[in-house]
Amino acid sequence: MKLSKIATLVILVLTINTMSAQINKPSLSPRVTADYNVGLAKIKIDYGQANKQDRIVFGGLIPYNRVWRTGANASTKITFDTQITLAGVTVPAGTYGLYTIPNKGEWTIILHKNAALWGSKDYEEKNDFARIQIAPINTKDTRETLGIYFENYTANGGDLVIAWENTKIALPVFVDTDALIYKEIDDKITTATGAISAQTYFDAAQFYYHKNYELATAVTWFDQARAMEPTRFWYTYYRAELALQLNDTETARTLATECLEAAKANPSTDYGYIAKATLLLDQLKK
Questions:
Q1: Contact 4, 116 (CB under 8 A)
Q2: Contact 166, 135 (CB under 8 A)
Q3: Helices then strands (H, E): number in the chain?
Q4: Is the dihedral of CA 224, 226, 227, 229 positive or negative?
Q5: CA dihedral of residues 133, 139, 145, 147 (deg, nearest 10)
Q6: pLDDT tens-digit profile of 114-137?
Q7: Torsion, CA 258, CA 263, CA 267, CA 271, rounded to 10
Q8: Strands of 113-216, DSSP E
């Protein structure tokens, strides 16, 4: 028993000494985790940010026609909190391994169902969720550090970008934002059982108005919001805009004037709505 305790103590001391002998060094390929709001989708990207370091990347460090982890160290992961469309492919919510097969004229983008792999060591094509073919873009400026990010945002999506060296891949991501908003409106107003706030009525009415959808319902919701919060003159402004769209110029003029007077009387003197209401009244004079 004593020998066993002594042996355990010796192993513990050796382990501590070994650990204390290690040198803490910075990673040359730091792990990057970034969250993006793309339309109404929340998308997370997690990857090892590799660097060029005077090497030839594609066709050299990263061989052509071979599965690449799309980063350094552990495989790159991408998470969608709702269903999206990636370059025309419908992708359910979830976390996927993001692999690629680079080539000069065409890349293969892979969403892999196993996101827990270390690199591409145990990658198996049978576990691919989808493969997408896309042509790379040659860039004039050389990018030293690998970047995976979003750009070119719209209300319904953006471009997922993989960029390194003189190569850029841009994959369009579409999020059916309208469908999500229509459902939220249905949940919070149409089928709601509890109290509905003035702001909820206003937001729903404004969305219907901008979509030119069920404008009679939008009128009702704007009016309910205004009745509940009569001092919120911006509610009145958008109700005036909707009246003009419906060719009800008399109502539009009355409401635009009401908004203008309220904005001028407001202690903060909201010049934005003073200008908006003035322009609307000028438009009504033509």
A1: no
A2: no
A3: 7, 10
A4: positive
A5: -40
A6: 999 988 888 999 999 999 999 999
A7: -170
A8: 128-134, 137-154, 157-174
Contact by Cβ (8 Å): 259, 241: no
Res 5: pLDDT: 59
> What size, in residues, is the chain?
286
Q: Which of 69-83, 200-214, 257-271 has the least mean pLDDT?
A: 257-271
Quick one: 142 exposed, middle or buried, by C-beta within 10 A (0-12, 13-18, 19+)?
A: exposed
Angle, helices 215-228 vs 198-211, to 10°: value is 150
Contact present, 262 and 236 (Cβ < 8 Å): yes
CB contact at 8 A, 57 and 165: yes
Query: Is 162 exposed, middle or buried, given 0-12, 13-18 or 19+ CB atoms closer than 10 A?
Result: buried
Q: Where do the structural domains in the chain lie, given as residue ranges?
A: 24-174, 177-285
Q: Could you tell me which of 32, 35, 110, 26 has the C-alpha nearest to residue 72? A: 32
Residue 160's nearest CA partner among 175, 145, 178 is 175
**Record: fold of 177-285:** 1.25.40
pTM score, whole prediction? 0.76
